[in-house]
Amino acid sequence: MAVKKNLTIYDIAQEAGVSPATVSRVLTGSARVSKAKKERIEALIKRYDFKPNALARGLSETKSNIIGMIVADIRNPFYATVFLECEKVASRYGYTLMVCNTLGEPELEDIYLEKMYEQRVDAIINVGGRVDDLVSNIDFVDHVNRIANVIPVIITGKLDGSDCYRVNIDQMQAMEIVMEYIISLGHKDIALIGGRDNVQSTVDKRSRYKQLLKRYGINVRNEFIVEGKRYDDESGYECMQKLFALEKLPTAIIAINDFTAVGAMRALTERGISVPEDVSIVSFDNTFIAEVTSPKLTSVSYSYENFGEKIVHAALGAIRGEEVPRIQLIQSELVIRGSCAKLNIEE
Amino acid sequence: MAVKKNLTIYDIAQEAGVSPATVSRVLTGSARVSKAKKERIEALIKRYDFKPNALARGLSETKSNIIGMIVADIRNPFYATVFLECEKVASRYGYTLMVCNTLGEPELEDIYLEKMYEQRVDAIINVGGRVDDLVSNIDFVDHVNRIANVIPVIITGKLDGSDCYRVNIDQMQAMEIVMEYIISLGHKDIALIGGRDNVQSTVDKRSRYKQLLKRYGINVRNEFIVEGKRYDDESGYECMQKLFALEKLPTAIIAINDFTAVGAMRALTERGISVPEDVSIVSFDNTFIAEVTSPKLTSVSYSYENFGEKIVHAALGAIRGEEVPRIQLIQSELVIRGSCAKLNIEE
DNA sequence: CTTTCTCAAGAAATCGGTTTCAAGCATATT
DNA sequence: AATATGCTTGAAACCGATTTCTTGAGAAAG
Asked: Is pLDDT of A2 > 50?
């Protein structure tokens, strides 16, 4: 019953009394095979639970049916969700994903890029390596381009001068819906905490934040823009300490992501400041983190499904040699939960 | 500068004026090559940034250097962390991981198992598919065994009757340190919330929980053992509703995992019951979720590093045909944060 | 009844590596 | 000087599929 030996199409062919080529034809459906032989072969395939060796097939077709994915840290629910959505789409088309975590280390990212090329993956999706880094050096762009020359590379960042396909979140639009919501609640003292200067998405958000304040006739106060060291809850906590040092606290806080918001909330709770009664807080990414705080977090949601869909379709299109748009933007919407409130009139 | 064509060892060989065999020898280091030729070949490899085709190599060596990993849902930080740790170890040995999410769907798990076999992965790590399911049917065990006959399969569950290598968390010991801690704080009314009847790890925890209560001369109260529908925060929230229905609330709550604990905490906060002053709460897994609650959660930590290490080493050992222990247990330790307090004497 | 067309199916080349086998050359041994 | 020993190296087989090319049988056409 149990099959020990690794069967090949030669074994199947022999037992069916046909040539390996005929077995291959049945397997791929690439050409007609007489009904009798086809049935005989299919029966054997089923009986022995035969699966063609993907390495051999890949070598022959110069195609691995694997898509490589590089993320910063899969423990971060943002990346995990993007990955999951990509997997859903990819597997629908017969592709499997190979994942690597850079953990923010540039050397690892280089190594994994090489490894994926070596594995002859059919496409590489780079989410959150250095693809959104404003100071990423030319060497990296060169490296990526050398690979993008041979294998389609899809990135979710900017990476000036690269030959990659881009699927980006429209940070401007995302910030817009946040600001409009907060301002509609009557807030004027609005802080923007977290995020780093050299990250494109953060820079984009800050820039729109300032623009929108101006549009609504609100003064931009630089002390309300607090940079965070990382994108975790500790950073959020630290950012809040800087705000506490000011003589007057903002009435609303926009956090660069859910983690930062969580850290900020903890800092507030510790001081006995309650959310949303005293301070409103809103964030980006809408990961499940936003569900587990109390109150639950109002957060901007990118349609992850759509994100994964666009990314993988770009990859598949490029693999097939079709014309694929070089840049695609993902729109967001606000998921309103319990962390924001109308500003009290007492100011 | 940029290399468009896919180079092969034949190209390198030709340009170096040697045979492909010699290039291969340099590549694998499998045999001595004269210094002059070796240097010439290496120079060319570097110049053209040549990387041997892993598919061809894999076909020839009947070895893909890929390890397949099946998880339930990578968004769950428990799986994400296990995956990350496995990746760290695997990549140290030249392996890459291919990940698939079953999302709790048995059919997907079967499909992915097949796919991995087809890809000729060198080993399969199954974390949290049906491997810990007590009612998993015989078909599944058969399926796994058919594959385990050819490719080493490492599971983190029990799966009676399977030929897999097992690396398990010692649930008994984990529960022990939790109970000892809680009891040392003076608690006697201790609830155990969340988890499902058909999951081995949950059953193990419950069984030890009862044993330990008895050992400490505390009555087992069945209404304090609350089953959860899933392993998420909603389930934790729901479990708490059942406890609220009792006439007397327990003074300590053990949650089956961090998510469940978070849901429970939200339920408590809503009722104005404060943690840890009124109720202590402790959980399992020590994911980063435990860091983002206020107060931060006291949680049992499996050494994920050790876990990944043991899993991957089992895989590598089995691949090499070495003798590998069929079962290995992972010990836990308690990470004490702010969610538990000494029982007030007023009871 | 012969010629042409169609189509199933086998032989063999190919994908790009690794490895066995044997040859060839230089050095060591007696 | 003759034989034994040790290395480097190339030729060729092999891993397991796909695919092109070719053959041959049977059907259609004349």
From this structure: no
Peptide linkage before A276 cis (omega within 30 of 0): yes
Chain A nearest CA to B296, separation (Å): 9
What is the layout of strands, in order, in the sheet containing A153-155?
A: A327-330, A165-169, A153-155, A123-127, A66-71, A96-101, B96-101, B66-71, B123-127, B153-155, B165-169, B327-330
- Structure token digits, residue B247: 């006439």
Structural contact between residues B255 and B283, judged by C-beta atoms closer than 8 angstroms: yes
Q: Which residue has the tokens 């050409």?
A: A31
Mean pLDDT by 10 residues, chain B (347 residues): 71 95 95 92 95 97 97 95 98 96 93 96 92 82 93 92 93 97 97 94 96 96 95 94 96 97 94 94 95 92 95 97 96 96 73
C-alpha of A34 from chain center: 47
Residue B203 contacts residue B186 (beta carbons within 8 Å): no
Q: Which tokens sit at B136?
A: 């998993």
Nearest CB among A2, A80, A115 relative to B149 is that of: A2
Domains of chain B: 9-52 (1.10.260.40), 64-170+304-331 (3.40.50.2300), 171-302 (3.40.50.2300)
Element (H, E) at A343: none
Do residues A42 and A22 lie in contact, with contact meaning Cβ atoms separated by under 8 Å? no
- Segment B114-118 long-range contacts (CB within 8 Å, at least 24 positions apart): B114/A51, B115/A96, B116/B68, B116/B70, B116/B151, B117/A51, B117/B147, B117/B150, B117/B151, B118/A51, B118/A52, B118/A53, B118/A54
What residues have CB less than 8 Å from A139, skipping those under 6 apart? none
Q: Under an 8 A CB cutoff, do A51 and B83 touch?
A: no
Give the distance from residue A292's alpha carbon to the nearest chain B alpha carbon, in angstroms: 6
**Cβ contacts of A74 on chain B, cutoff 8 Å:** 74, 80, 83-84
